[in-house]
Please model this.
Amino acid sequence: MNAVEIEQAITDLASQPFDRIEFPYAFLQALGNKDTTLKRLLSGATNKSAALTPCATPPTVPMAAPTFMA
Model:
């Protein structure tokens, strides 16, 4: 898909009523993802061999606490 086709698909998607369950899949389809990819996502099938393994050691740099403006 080229940029014009993607823009048109997103415009069409935006004109439809929002469905929080179907939106992620419709958005991916509008971006040009293949039907087989969407079917795999809908079915929950994943490649278990490509799963990330947990990190053996935690990061050594502490994260700063969030600050909120009053």
